[in-house]
Write the structure tokens for this entry.
Amino acid sequence: MAVTRFSVSLEKELLEELDSFAESNGFANRSQALRHLIEKNIVEEKWQCNNVVAGAIVMIYDHHKKDIDSKSNDIQHDYFDVILSSQHYHLSHEICLEIIAVRGQASRLTELSDKLIGIKGIKHGKLVMSKST
Ligand code: NI
């Protein structure tokens, strides 16, 4: 693909952050890092639409905290039509890892993910989606 050069003006701090992002993620140069960031953001924007996509929601939480399991279960039942399966791993005495495989309209998966990750006490959560067609 043809490449067009253009110049970008950035504050010093932002440029330093870009360089450290490029280094820690193994990008060869700033152009590659920028390309990745731009593509990622534009693809994510497309996810906010009605395209049918497949993906996974990954959550880490302490199951001793505040009915997380029952809240998560209630939410998942409201979205049974887009949940393919879920796996629960007890990582330690307290910590749980849950991986929920999903397929459906991107906007609905985002809504489900926001509700689950928004449960108070969830330590970490992430939705990954990719085109399913
Ligand atoms: Ni567990």
About this structure: The chain has two domains: 12-48, 52-131.
